[in-house]
Amino acid sequence: MHVLKFGGTSMGDAAAISRVAGIVARAAAANRLAIVVSAMSGITDLLLLCGTTAARQETGWSAYLDQIVERHHAVIRLLLPDEQQQEQLLQVEDAAKELASLCAGISLLGECSLRTRDRLAAYGELLSSRLFTACLSARGIDASWADSRTLIRTNSNYTRARVDAATTMALVTGYFQQSRAAVTVLPGFIASDAEGNTTTLGRGGSDFSAALIGAALPDAVVEIWTDVPGMMTADPRLVKQARTISALSFQEAMELSHFGAKVLYPPSVQPLLARNRSFRIRNTFDPDAAGTLIESGIRPDQGIIRGITGISGIALISLEGSGMVGIPGISQRLFGALALRSINVILITQASSEHSICVGIEESLLEAACTAVQEEFRTELNTGSIDPLQCETGLSIVALVGDQMKSHPGISGRLFSELGRNGVNVRAIAQGSSERNISTVISSRDVRKAINVLHEAFFENSCKQVNLFIAGVGNVGGKLIDLIRRQQPWLQEHLRLQVRVVGLLNSRRMLVCEEGIDLEDWQPALQSAAVASLDGFVEQITALNLRNSVFVDVTSQEPVAATYGQLLQHSIPVVACNKIAASSSYVHYRTLKDLSRAFGAPWLFETNVGAGLPVIGTLGDLMNSGDTVHRIEAVLSGTLNFVFNNYDGSRSFAEVVREAQALGYTEPDPRLDLGGTDVARKILILAREAGVPLEMKSVHIESFMPASCMQGSIEDFYTEMERQEGHFRALLEEARAQGRRLKFVATFAQGEASVGLQAIGDQHDFYHLYGKDNVVRFFTQRYPEQPLVVKGAGSGAEVTASGIFADIIKTARS
Q1: Does the annotation count 406 as an active-site position?
Q2: CB 215 within 8 A of CB 288
Q3: Where are the beta strands (DSSP E) in 515-592?
């Protein structure tokens, strides 16, 4: 005997029912069948709406009833031959009359009791099962209908009645021993008590009906047919990469079904587990797929973590106080008070100090639960031996499930590490002694991110998704986007990183696309996007709450730098070529460093000094390995190095500066380079990274520029430089006369920093520094005489973009 159950979606309309009939026809060719069907999708809800509307003494219930009748009529006309339609149409009309009479009585009383609700809800399964029996008969299949209420016996509870297992097993066994039909169709979900009153087994109870019948029949094969491929590693609505689990143990299936996996009604496992009888979950819309096998025992080759699931709408109640320590019976009183109000406790955690107990319940029951607990502990609350109740809402449970977690250390550590790195705060933790389930209570707004992060960590060997929000898409930003586009396949293949650009912001427009921006066509998309708003952009970053988000600042704007603290507090890493934050007040710099550490969000700014050169990284390695920096000498301006390498007197100084700006080597305002401010910021940043609390005002700047050049507009700047050509020519000639070259040098030693123009002799490392190169010499405890030197291209859009990209990859892999 094969027992097949088909859910509401499988019976949703004429096309779905026809598909199910085809599945049954193929199965009936080889086996005797018991078919359990749910009501057509949405019908049970309409039936209950009839009852609640009638109880409010409103007339709208008749419209809901009309919808129920019309849906069944439409299916009958589409699926049954003309000569068989009349009987089914009459059955629907008879049911409609009974329902109308029932609703009229409810309206008269102004009340719909639980018993009446069960009677109302039963009509959905009764109608669909009779209709499906007729559909099979029309296909020439020997099908008969059986009333589940005569086979499944319950106690007198309603809406989720408790099954009398022994009586049910005897009734089912006796019926199928006598029946000779090739296919027996039964309504799921419904049963009856000892007095013959209609009861129901709870929403999803058709699974339970099939399990009870399958458990009662010797050697029965049970299949639960639904609208998904089986039980999955996570909810596919939340995780696109979720995949079907090929096999689960009974215990794993129980854990997953209890903790939010809607594929299986939790009690369904119990009768089959008692008989050690495996069953399979299959997909009505992909009947050739294997689905998920639920069986006894563990398959070691199937992986440690089998699924990630969750429950939303959770509230926490915390009972705390010194009066609880060492006092027997506190837990008993707490749970007893909740049980008296029929409040189910979903999660429990208690500190070993006995100072606090925390329980998780359905959020809708919070008010009743608080009242119950406060009444029970009124005396202790009044005397202060127990603190006032702490209640939290807006929470969800996310759980890892797997039989093999018990023998594998480090699973919990990895779980909390992944959540912490993505800024997901864990409010409570519970793990049974079986170690089959690790449950965490988190904010509901973090559920999507948390489940995706954990799924990526435990199930996806392919790629880690990284989501970039880029502010600044000018020269450097454009090069960065192009670099990301070109490197995406390589990163996916070699580093297993799926780097996506999700947000773009410039001074005029901002574009945010949760699915990722097409980097082949980003410019037109940005031009037609929403008007730019820095606050709005940051709000969208935090509201989307995507896993592995990174904010990339490719601007030189102070308002953008001012957002770093807010982002870091949301555990969003910041990668910046913008020097303003790192060179701001030392207190602010230190605050950002502390936020980065506290929230596990890297703040990387390698390109602040030396563009793509590993200057800050090298300094960090020296400091982290216990070295001490005594002196730093550096040429840190690719712009100034280019200018003085190319200024030979054949052209004016102003012309050479214009060339540098045209090549993209200067800041948007070249005076920041030539005035020494940019270099001063860089040596300040290096001093701070070396551990010295230096302020910008303490950096001595020896300017070689006439004061008149630094006033007015940028064009005024160039005009005045032409007028001051004699000044620049004099500097050049003086250095030549000594056989030296002009270099703008930054120095840090003995806690002091300075920048200024120097004439360098041919014995110095800086003498042979060409083009736009930068060089940094670190004199340390390990390198006291022969310094550690970092040298290379120190400006330009491409090398800066490459340095930013390198920081992004560091962040993604941290």
Answers
A1: no
A2: no
A3: 530-531, 549-553, 574-576
Query: Above pLDDT 90, what percent of the chain?
Result: 71
Entry pTM: 0.71
Q: 229 or 144: whose pLDDT is higher? A: 144
CB atoms within 10 A of CB 543: 11
- What six digits make up the tokens of 732? 């050049």
What is residue 301's predicted lDDT score, i.e. its pLDDT? 59
Kindly state the average pLDDT of the residues 528-536. 95
List the structure tokens of 501. Answer: 């650009």
Would you say how long the chain is, in residues?
Answer: 814
Strands 549-553 and 464-471: parallel
Cβ 771 vs Cβ 565: under 8 Å: no
- Residues near 370 by beta carbon (within 8 Å), at least 6 away in sequence: 317, 389, 391
Nearest C-alpha neighbor of 132 from the set 148, 144, 121, 120? 144
Q: Which domains does the chain have, with CATH numbers?
A: 2-227 (3.40.1160.10), 307-458 (3.30.2130.10), 464-608 (3.40.50.720), 615-795 (3.30.360.10)
Q: Is 501 helix (H, G, I), strand (E, B) or coil?
A: strand
Distance CA 483, CA 802 (A): 8
Strand partners, 398: 310, 440
How far is the C-alpha of 204 from the C-alpha of 3, rounded, in Å?
Answer: 17
3 state SS for 271-334: HHHHCCCCEEEEECCCCCCCCEEEECCCCHHHCCCCEEEEEEEEEEEEEECHHHCCCCCHHHHH
Q: Which two tokens stand for residue 483?
A: 């670099």
Given the residues 682, 743, 772, 791, the one annotated as active site: 682
What does the angle CA 353 – CA 358 – CA 361 come to, to the nearest 5 degrees?
A: 165
